[in-house]
Amino acid sequence: MLGRIIGLLKVNKKLLNDMTLVTFARVIDILIPLLTYPYLIKVLGLGSYGSVIYELSLITIFSVVINYGFELNGVKLVSLNRRDKNKINEIVSNAIYIKLILLCCVSTIFLVYAYNYSEDRELSLILSLCLLQYVFANDWYYIGMENVKVTVFIRLITRIIFLIGVFSVVKSKSDSYMLGWLYAMSAILLSVIYIYHFVFVEGIRLTRFRFRTLYYYFRQGFDLFYSTFFISIKDKTTILVLGHLISYEMVVVYDFAMKIVSVLTIPIGIVNSLVYPKFVRNKNIKQFIYVLLTLIGYGLSSLVLSVLLFNFISLDYFNIDREYKDLISILFVVPLLLSCSQTIARNYLNAFGHRRQYFAAINYTTIYHFVCMSILIVISIDDFQVFLISVLTVYIFELLIRLYYFLSTVLISENSNSNSNSNSNSKNQKY
Question: Model-level pTM greater than 0.70?
Fold first, then answer.
């Protein structure tokens, strides 16, 4: 079975190299925060560090609005027009125009939150500067141009500077604002580097603002924005509800566990990304089953290994009871659920053209998630175990609804094929 997967991944060397670099960048993005966890918890305390993570989760939700699906749609547009410099200028210009408009809208909402609802207005305002990077740090352009090493190098440099800054500047519990400024300045530095490279190296020139052209790109990216937005807010609103109901301390614990989960799901994302173009072209259900079963096998392996290894990891710096450590290990079943759920969603429902079912699964899961979170808020639950079980049921529901659409569409397809075969046989008998 593994041999069949390797056969599916026979793509050109350039694509594999780019995917390796993107994977490396994702690992760095996850590992650097993990490296700083013990130090920041020791210096700032769980509560102060938890408030920073809480605010950053809100920033992440707004960032999805600003990005507006260009991570996928932008790659496609740039890749198709990479040899047409004028078209590239038009694509990049309108992407920036759209993002600037969305930044203004999002910033207004965030300022209302900061002045009226935030428990730490100053920290909220400092971290709001992080929103700038989502306008100018357009990784999708470099991926579409097959020049991924540039964006990986830029992000690696800024991450290393941030890491050095954390250990150099954050020295006491009162330095939570300093940590906020480090995040903000890293975002501004990232934006400046991208702007410089866009203008002076890539030679990008902004085209004239035209409403009709802007509307064309806005409408074209709506479907991808719709899907990525609800998937992202589903994950990040969980942290917001946790901080609201229980404590910022538990926000740190939960965020730490989910970062480990993110590392475990990286291989799933890589394989799904690599085989997606093949399934779009050939729609081979047998090959899809091979990929699905292989990734489920990986999910089972990661579950067993992560639970075993987690017993040897010390969480003394969290200053939490043993029972919380056992509860966190419940989340290690998530990669197993996602190995099936994400594969069905992307490489079957989406790749095979079942877009109605694809978006319906997103809608139903989002509704279920918000119902669960609303119930927890209404009854003011403060039990971490109940909260984790509620989160886990969302992933289970998502898997079940996608599995239902997968099985139903496969059965419909088989019935239609059998009917067409029987009709052709009856016609042959007549002749």
Answer: yes
